[in-house]
Structures are given as structure tokens and as C-alpha cells.
Specification:
Involved in the gluconeogenesis. Catalyzes stereospecifically the conversion of dihydroxyacetone phosphate (DHAP) to D-glyceraldehyde-3-phosphate (G3P). The chain contains 11 helices and 8 strands. It is of the alpha/beta class. It has an 8-stranded parallel beta sheet.
């Protein structure tokens, strides 16, 4: 059965006091409302240890926004799977479009990160999505297929059972533009079929595929009504408790 998931990517936002307050307020809300949805938040690396401790007995999962493709060594500024795991973090976003754009991360490199995560028993949230020019040129399916295929080509099918994929069309991230529910469903269905063709139907049918790209309190319910959309990876709206909890409630 596919898991319903709402994840918040806080990116490079919030001071530590602000992040701690938001995490604790969200935890209070979750305790009171007991939503039937898996909730993940991804604060900046600096805050992972303390927020992880604050939410140790919570139903909220704390994830990293990124992880190194290297095990350890002279890689200034990188954070390894082993380091994350040593502070209790067992999930990481990989392949976000901002990492692809600003740090030139390629699909094979992203696949190496996924391999390291699985070697340490951690869960990857693989981000994929096309640019506006790709969609306008009718290449969006080709681009997304390449991203999925290359990033997952060396992965053990048994380990893929807990894979989370986030489809985030680059043209919709932080722009206020959102794929229509039909556009999002069409791509989610395509992603699931691509995973099925490469790794088997059983893996495809258990993979949670999230939508990301200007998800907000106003459009979440329409997106979640689509059969292949299992939840959302939320950016800016995850920084506002009322907006984020409204999105979570829309996924019940």
C-alpha cells in the first residue's frame, strides 16, 4: 500500500529559534489532531540534531535536505550518510532542482547518493522534474524518464520498497505557477509506469510519488484527488503552520 506523505522542505530559511518554534508548534498540532498522514520536515543541516532531539518521540520524521555522494574524507561543506545517521536522521532529499541548477548535480551523481543512503538503511526522497523549455518543446516525458532511470539504475529492487519520489516541475517551484491536477496526474502516472518497467510493478505500486511546485492551502485538495498523487513536497507553504496543516488535512 502506498503511504500518504506530506513533507516540508524548509530550504535556507528560518533562524534556529524560528525553526525550533515551528517544529514544536507542528508537533503540538500533530499530537492533538493525529493525522493519518506521514509528516516529514527538512530543516537546514545546522538544526537537524536539535530538532531531531526535540521531535524524538514525535510522529514527525526529520529529514536532511541533501547528502554527500561520498562516504567521508576531504569534501569541505559536505555531510555524509554516516554523519546524518549518527544524529538519528534516516531520510534525505536528493536531486532537488536547486541542487541540479546551482551545484550542477547530474543523475548518475544523484544515483550515487541514493546508493549510499540505502547502504546505511536510510530513505531517499528523489526529486525529479522538467524545465519550462522542456515542457514547451514536448520533451518533458523524456527528461523525467531519464532522471528516474539513471538515478535508480544501480539500485537493489528490494531496497526500493521504501523509495519516495517527488515530481517537481522546475517551472512551478517558487514561481506561484502550479501544474494543473490533470498535468500532475499524467506525469505521476508516467513516473509510476517508468518505475514499473525498470524495477517491477510491485515496486511501482508501493512507491509514494509526491507533487511539489507551489503547493499551497488552496490547491492541495484538487491535487490530492488525483489517483497517482500520494502527497506533496511543500516549499514556502511549509514555513507557515496554518498553511502546512491545511495541506496535511487535505491529504486525509
Amino acid at each position: 500500500m502506498r503511504r500518504k506523505i506530506v513533507a516540508g522542505n524548509w530550504k535556507m530559511n528560518l533562524t534556529f529559534p524560528q525553526a525550533k518554534e515551528l517544529a514544536l508548534r507542528l508537533n503540538t498540532w500533530v499530537h492533538a489532531n493525529k493525522p493519518s498522514v506521514e509528516i516529514i520536515i527538512a530543516p537546514t543541516h545546522l538544526y537537524l540534531d536539535q530538532i531531531g532531539k526535540d521531535l524524538k518521540n514525535s510522529k514527525i520524521r526529520v529529514a536532511s535536505q541533501n547528502v554527500s555522494a561520498m562516504e567521508n574524507g576531504a569534501y569541505t561543506g559536505d555531510v555524509s550518510t554516516e554523519q546524518l545517521q549518527s544524529i538519528g536522521i534516516n531520510c534525505s532529499i536528493v536531486g532537488h532542482s536547486e541542487r541540479r541548477q546551482y551545484h550542477n548535480e547530474q543523475d548518475k551523481y544523484i544515483g550515487k547518493k541514493i546508493t549510499h543512503l540505502y547502504e546505511h538503511g536510510m530513505t531517499p526522497i528523489l526529486c525529479i522534474g522538467e524545465k519550462l523549455e522542456d515542457r514547451e518543446a514536448g520533451k518533458h516525458f523524456d527528461v523525467v524518464k531519464e532522471q528516474v532511470t539513471v538515478a535508480l539504475e544501480r539500485q537493489d529492487p528490494d531496497k526500493l520498497k521504501d523509495l519516495i519520489v517527488a515530481y517537481e516541475p522546475v517551472w512551478a517551484i517558487g514561481t506561484g505557477k502550479t501544474a494543473t491536477p490533470d498535468q500532475a496526474q499524467e506525469m505521476h502516472d508516467f513516473i509510476r509506469k517508468t518505475i514499473g518497467a525498470e524495477h517491477g510493478i510491485s515496486i511501482a505500486n508501493t512507491t509514494s510519488i509526491l507533487y511539489g511546485g507551489s503547493v499551497n492551502a488552496g490547491n492541495a485538495r484538487d491535487l490530492f484527488e488525483q489517483y497517482d498523487i500520494d502527497g506533496a513536497l511543500v516549499g514556502g507553504a511549509s514555513l507557515n503552520l496554518d498553511d502546512f496543516t491545511t495541506i496535511i488535512k487535505a491529504r486525509y
